[in-house]
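Ops channel
N.P.: pipeline sanity check, posting one input/output pair.
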């Protein structure tokens, strides 16, 4: 509470200002309705500000939670850890079913899994020979093209379904130039550039392993 005469702060319950001696009326000791409304508005704005900052921080901390870059991260981790299950997660189910039905070497799903695991193991072994057991594969997206317009996605969806005999809907697609590099104690500059394509189906990003997305560049 503030004295209306001298502007000094007055302790709650005091009848006179301790600085100028002015009498403090009962009306002055009670917060006005306007004052209460202002405090309520300030409180709401403060909560909204804090909530917004938390959301922004979370977006910065988890920047790729719904991005095709998660596919890149999963593939590189699968190579580094020889995690075939993680690798299989980035392959579209339609591609897996199509491969199982057309590749005579695969009599069942496990045959395909073992083959993919063997390829991961060979790549991992090659890295270990070059850089030792303590290595880390990192990446950087050098450039990208995102496809979100209805015309492009309809064209891509038709091509995808014709190839794999599916009824899926491509919700988004992307083509990126990805630079990968192996980090290790004895590693010299070893960056590799590659073109990668990605598609989004039912809210999940997958590796467009047959690069059907290239059709949109023609």
């Amino acid at each position: 509470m503030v004295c209306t005469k001298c502007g000094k702060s007055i302790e709650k319950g005091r009848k006179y200002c301790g600085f100028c001696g002015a009498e403090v009326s009962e009306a002055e000791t009670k917060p006005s309705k306007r004052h209460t409304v202002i405090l309520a508005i300030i409180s709401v704005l403060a909560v909204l500000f804090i909530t917004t900052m938390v959301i922004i921080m979370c977006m910065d901390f988890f920047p790729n939670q719904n991005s095709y870059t998660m596919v890149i991260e999963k593939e590189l981790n699968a190579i580094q850890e020889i995690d075939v299950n993680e690798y299989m997660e980035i392959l579209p189910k339609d591609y897996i079913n199509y491969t199982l039905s057309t590749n005579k070497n695969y009599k069942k799903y496990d045959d395909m899994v073992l083959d993919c695991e063997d390829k991961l193991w060979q790549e991992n072994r090659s890295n270990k020979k070059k850089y030792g057991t303590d290595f880390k594969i990192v990446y950087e997206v050098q450039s990208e093209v995102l496809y979100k317009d209805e015309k492009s996605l309809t064209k891509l969806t038709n091509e995808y379904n014709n190839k794999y005999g599916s009824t899926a809907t491509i919700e988004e697609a992307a083509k990126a130039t990805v630079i990968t590099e192996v980090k290790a104690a004895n590693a010299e500059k070893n960056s590799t550039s590659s073109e990668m394509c990605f598609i989004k189906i039912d809210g999940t990003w997958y590796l467009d392993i047959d690069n059907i997305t290239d059709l949109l560049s023609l």
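N.P.: looks fine end to end. Residues 31-61 form one domain.
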